[in-house]
Amino acid sequence: MRLYFPIIVLLSLMTLSAFISTPSTLSTPRPAGYEYINQYKELAIAEMHRTGIPASITLAQGMHESNYGGSSLATQAHNHFGIKCKSYWRGQTYYHKDDDYDKKGKLLESCFRAYNDAVESYIDHSNFLKFSANYTWMFKLDKTNYKAWAFGLKNSGYATDPKYAEKLIKIISTYQLHKFDQITVESLNNY
């Protein structure tokens, strides 16, 4: 048995290293991601300077929640962040099935906020985070610490997906969105 142990360990390490370096396990940027970034980066940066939410987080959430701007919620309701109505919402609404169930376990249509355009969605997203009690503590975080913001969103209940923070971080890393957290409004034309 002692002879086989080193061989088993060596084979395990070789298998693990092959898996880690396999292209299919690495993040591959999608053209739709770059299109989304080019369309909304200035808005995300402006909102960062207005509210303190990192542009990288706003862009990653928008990309993830709207499927790079292609979801029905984004194309029909201009909602890029999956924000539901909440009891106090008095604006336009859009209904579609998401993650709300009745007592019998039947999937129900959820009420989502609807907007006239993506600009309204971005502004409401910033205001939603800035003025909702669940998220106010996050504004003490450094706006360049996108990982803390990603985990803060998850821990504050923004999404039900247990991997939400990791997904945002992966999008930020894949598209190098963190570079937008350093941009001043004045230097925006250079990007």
Task: Give me the CATH fold name of the domain at 29-81 and 116-190.
Answer: Lysozyme
Average pLDDT level: 86
Q: Major beta sheet, specifics?
A: 2 strands, antiparallel
**Number of helical regions:** 7
Please provide the count of β strands.
2
Reading side by side through the largest sheet, how are the strands ordered?
Answer: 1-2
Unreliable residue stretches: 3-26
Return the string of H and E elements.
Answer: HHHHEEHHH
In percent, how much strand structure appears in the residues?
Answer: 5-15%
The structural class is: mainly alpha
The quaternary state of the protein chains shown equals: single chain
Q: What is the name of the CATH architecture of the domain at 29-81 and 116-190?
A: Orthogonal Bundle
**CATH class term of the domain at 29-81 and 116-190:** Mainly Alpha
Which percent range fits the helix content? 40-55%
**Overall 3D geometry?**
globular
Note the gap between the termini.
Answer: 61 Å
Please state the CA-atom Rg, rounded to the nearest Å: 20 Å
Write a structural description:
This protein is mainly α and about 190 residues long. The protein has a domain at about 30-80 and about 115-190: Lysozyme, CATH 1.10.530.10. The chain is about 50% helix and about 10% strand. It is built from seven helices and two strands. Strands 1-2 form a two-stranded antiparallel ribbon. Helix 3 packs across helix 7. The chain starts with a helix and ends in a 16-residue tail after the last helix.
